[in-house]
Design brief:
Elements lengths: L1 H22 L1 H9 L1 E6 L8 E2 L5 E2 L1 H12 L3 E6 L2 H9 L5 E7 L2 H6 E3 L4 E3 L1 E6 L15 E4 L4 H8 L3 E4 L3 H9 L5 E5 H10 L5 E6 L4 E8 L3 H17 L1 H10 L6
Parallel strand pairs: 1-4, 1-5, 9-10
Antiparallel strand pairs: 2-3, 5-13, 6-13, 7-13, 8-11, 8-12
Helix pairs in contact: 3-9
């Protein structure tokens, strides 16, 4: 019995010693390498896309760069299609996904999230001459252009739509504009930015969800120190006005509210 108790105590001591080192291992590796590896699409304007010079830019990209700066490391971006971002995080190809990832119970069960950094609404978008879809309920039996594993795709399915697989926002809009899909569910802010760039595009918003969705930095579980460091960076941006400046650069408003 005494031997058994000694073994239990030894095990408890071992756990107490090793747990803290595990808790911060990702953050420790980031600080040691001096690089914060970020997964993003690069095809989702105005959040993450390539400008006229082919430079990766966008709201989320600027947020990621500022997070890295405040952690005193350099950002390194890996561009992956939406459907591969979460798998890439699992496979440790990058330290975080910063790509308008919505907070959902299913994702919270497997991953950690930072505090939210955007609040947005889902828009139902159709071709401008489509009068058969006026509400989300009208999606039943229709073709909706979506990334298959996105929140928008799952929402479209819940309304009875059949999904037409796409690589991202631009392709979804193009499929709707050319009649190869009846509609797409997408971010209202992205659509407004798109129409600002292409005012004559034959697409329109016919309905919006009243509930706002929140997006945050997606991280692997098990490293509260990294979550805390990112939260500190995000809160610092909001407190000193940096976030508002980035937001106004792309949207003309502070989208955190």
């Amino acid at each position: 019995m005494k031997v058994f108790l000694k073994l239990l105590l030894a095990g408890a001591v071992t756990l107490a010693i090793t747990a803290p080192s595990y808790a911060g291992k990702d953050f420790d590796a980031i600080k040691a390498s001096g690089v914060f590896k970020v997964g993003t699409e690069g095809t989702y304007p105005p959040f993450t896309y390539h400008d006229a010079t082919n430079k990766l830019t966008g709201f989320d990209v600027d947020i990621a760069r500022e997070i890295a700066r405040r952690m005193d490391v350099k950002p390194e971006f890996t561009e992956v299609k939406w459907d591969g971002l979460i798998a890439g995080l699992d496979a440790k190809r990058f330290d975080a996904v910063i790509n308008q990832v919505g907070i959902t119970p299913a994702r919270e069960a497997k991953f950690s999230f930072s505090i939210p950094y955007t609040v947005s609404q889902v828009a139902l978008i159709t071709r401008d001459n489509n009068n058969s879809i006026k509400s989300f309920d009208d999606l039943k039996g229709k073709r909706s252009a979506q990334s298959l594993t996105s929140n928008y795709g799952q929402l479209a399915i819940s309304y009875g739509a059949t999904l037409v697989s796409t690589d991202g926002f631009n392709q979804s809009i193009d499929l709707v504009a050319t009649g190869r899909a009846d509609a797409t569910l997408n971010d209202r802010l992205s659509f407004l930015d798109f129409k600002n760039q292409r005012p004559n595009a034959p697409v329109k918003i016919v309905a919006q969800q009243t509930d706002a969705s929140k997006s945050a930095v997606l991280l692997r579980k098990g490293d509260p120190e990294l979550v805390e460091a990112i939260n500190k960076a995000l809160q610092g941006m909001k407190d000193d006005g940096t976030y508002a400046r980035i937001s106004e650069k792309y949207f003309g408003i502070d989208i955190s509210k």
